[in-house]
Amino acid sequence: MKRNTPATRRQFLATAAATAAGSFLLPRSAVLAAPDGIGRTDHFLYRLSPPDGPYIDTQRDNKAFAIGDRKVLVSEDNAKTWARSADFADSENIMFSSILGSGNIVFATLTKIYLSTDNLKTYREIVVKDRDGSPYLPHNPSDPKKPGSYFYSLDGIHTCQIDGREMLIWGNYCNVKHGAAPVNIYYSTDQGETVKIAYSFGRNPHFQQKDAAPATFLGDPDNPVLCRHVHSVAYNPAENAFYACTGDLDHGEGHGKECHWLRGTYAAAADSWNWQVLVSSDANSRYKSGGINFVNGQVYWVADANGPKNPSEPYDRGIFRCNPADLADKAKHTRIFDAKYELAAMTIDDGVILVPEYGGANPCDTGFIFSPDLGKTWAVYDLKEFGDRSGVRVNPRNSDGWFRVCLREKWMNRAEVLFIKPLS
After folding, report:
1. Within 10 A of 15 (CB to CB), how many other CB atoms are there?
2. In what helix (H) or strand (E) does residue 30 lie, and over which residues does it extend?
3. Dihedral pair phi/psi, residue 11, rounded to 5°
């Protein structure tokens, strides 16, 4: 693939019209930086959040939640001003936040989760409940500087409407930087007043505290399904079902594969879950996935395939779509974009597909794959002025029309916040 080759929208559409949908890679298109700090491509505007402002951690409609120096803040005008703030000593370790339909704000550090119901006039800690209703407490870390990452997520969409009620649901992306942690899917059906475990993965011997005895391993001792972390959780309203995918490797005989797709259904009357593993795979597979989205009953996802393979074997990469019932049958998948490198996240909002590229594996600098029309046409951009960054946690557009993207340096280190606004 050539990079940084200017491509006009006319060239882009002409190439797309002459090529089968989803089977082509276009030259990376030119970008233009504006004096007001707003850059422009053929398809979208982009800008960083103000460098002298707080770190904008999430957004929804006109509301935004941000992290400051030992503070948390909320805005009700798309982060133009910050109406209220509250002291929060551990703000630098906030790893997750979500704004709910009621206006409630759920936010979490590495090991603790909090709720504000009044725009940060007050907030309180929420103790997670296990599946049996008992308190689910974080473990006592052997190294206090590495307590584990219980709540961080790669997704940018964490809420859905199910049976007329909003559900908050996500899985933790852990066992990378902050020490060992158990892998869970969390949920709340009461606007964050209670947070519970929807699913707990088993005890993975490869991701435990140093010198831990097997009897003290983290994870569900009764679940043989192992993984390193959760990549994505999403809801399909057409089936009234949830899907989750995990990573990362195949550790061979006796330890099992870590890349799974699961399907879960929720019974509200009993407040109970039923989960089934649909596919388990090695790491050179489209089933090592991320960015699950559902549109018109079809499942869309990106492939994070990067595991060991034979020299002659290609990487099973790209952006894919299929009927959920056909997930386990590769022959029934449509590769709508043939990506050269692995991908980790994707958000689809009203037909617009925004996919950050993974800077750690990709020679791009702050790269994005973009489709304005649900995969009929595509463009690829490098926003080189921002350097080697990877985007995650892509929130859908706010009421001013801007996506919010968390930029990461070396994958796990918080860097800047980028906003992207499609031109049409």
Report:
1. 16
2. none
3. -60, -40
- DSSP code of 14? H
Between CA 96 and CA 67 the distance in angstroms is 11
Terminal Cα distance for the chain, rounded = 27
Q: Which residues pair with 303 in a beta bridge?
A: 289
Q: How far is it, in rounded angstroms, from Cα 124 to Cα 67?
A: 17
Mean pLDDT of residues grouped by 10 in the chain (424 residues)? 33 35 47 72 97 96 98 98 96 98 98 98 98 97 97 98 96 97 98 98 96 97 97 98 94 80 97 97 95 98 91 94 98 97 97 94 93 98 95 98 96 96 93
The Cα 113–Cα 115 span in angstroms is: 7
338 vs 227: CA distance, rounded Å: 27
d(CA 287, CA 60): 30
Longest dimension (CA), the chain: 63
Cβ(46)–Cβ(37) below 8 Å? no
Give dist(CA 5, CA 17) in Å, integer. Answer: 20
Residue 253, classed as helix, strand or coil, is: coil
What are the phi and psi torsion angles at 386 (to 5°)? -95, -5
At residue 319, the pLDDT reads: 98
Taken in order 107, 113, 119, 121, is the CA torsion positive or negative?
negative
- Reported for 32-41, long-range contacts at CB under 8 A and 24+ positions apart, including other chains, are 33/385, 39/383, 39/385, 41/379, 41/381
For residue 32, give the 3-state DSSP assignment. strand
Dihedral sign, Cα of residue 59, residue 62, residue 65, residue 69? positive
d(CA 320, CA 361): 20
Handedness of CA 203, 391, 315, 261 (dihedral sign): positive
- Distance, CA of 158 to CA of 235 (rounded, Å): 9
Name the residue among 75, 53, 76, 57 with its Cα closest to residue 66.
57
